[in-house]
Amino acid sequence: MSEEPNSPDFDSIKQISPYGAEFWSARDLGPLLGYKRWENFEIAIKRAKTSCQQVGQIVDDHFREATKPIKGGKGSVQNVKDYILSRFSCYLIAQNGDPRKIEIAVAQTYFATAARQYEIQQLREEQDKRLRLRERVSENNKDLSQAAYNAGVLSKNFGVFQDAGYRGLYGGLGAEDIKHHKNISPKEDILDRMGSSELAANDFRITQARDKLREERIIGQTKAIETHQQVGKEVRGAIKRIGGRMPEDLPTEPSIKPLMEEQKRKRKKVPPKTLPEMSLFPEETEDNPE
Question: Could you give phi then psi for residue 16, rounded to 5 degrees?
Fold first, then answer.
């Protein structure tokens, strides 16, 4: 069945990189969107790049500048400006294209479905990343508690020790202050409401404090608490120097706790691997004489 007029086949110009990633050439895409002049199409590309930045995406990840060889008269070849486009950037171009063009309306429908799939994939990847980080933080926190205990921190003062690390990293805010600042329920664990960036910052604080306590063989409860707070301050300083957002200003995320519990249930359902029963003394056979 032949395609209807003005229903371009965008898959026909799709290319696959050596790494298996799909992409489109802007020079190939422009004519299918009804643009005869590159200069007019580049206006839509510039608007799409602005939209990409506004939604928090890295522009260069979706609009990679490139050159494309174009054959001219008498076999001459001219290299012209081009862009390597992701599926998401094609969608943004369609959204920012000339709405009077029928091809633009078709492209919006085609790439909108793909863009939604991309958003879902991004959410899943972020969710998986948060889950892995949250589990790692839990394990590293156990190691930190052991290091603190070995340094002389009494069990009844573990809360004070942990709070010291938060106060260093969060500019003087302890755990309860952070909950109040971020509108987190007092019964919730603040780690469960952190996004991946905030979890990564805390994981760095935890591992650095653990290693410092062990490697410098710090002894004494007061010294251990001071060390944890100082490490938190150092991590905060590093974030500030690179121009990152302070952890208390990062947004909260939906609790990761239900996913952690689901992960634990799944692991419990997987039966442990067992080796087949083997005798240390195989039965005697004609091939295995005495």
Answer: -120, 130
140 & 62 share domain? no
**CA distances to 60, 274, 277 from 282, in Å:** 66, 20, 12
Give residue 216's identity as a one-letter amino acid code. E
Question: Could you give the strand order of the β-sheet that contains 77-85, starting from the edge strand earlier in sequence?
Answer: 15-16, 22-25, 77-85, 63-71
CB-count exposure of residue 195 (10 Å: 0-12, 13-18, 19+): middle
Q: Are residues 94 and 132 in the same domain?
A: no
Determine the length of the chain: 290
Query: Which residue is associated with the tokens 């007092």?
Result: 186
pLDDT in tens, 30-82: 999 999 999 999 999 999 999 999 888 899 989 999 998 887 667 778 889 99
Taking the chain (290 residues) in runs of 10, the rounded mean pLDDT of each run is: 55 84 91 92 94 89 90 78 91 87 81 67 78 93 95 94 97 95 93 92 96 96 97 96 92 86 75 52 44
Question: Residue 60 is part of which domain span?
Answer: 10-98
Is the same domain home to 89 and 154? no
Residues 145 and 240 in one domain: yes
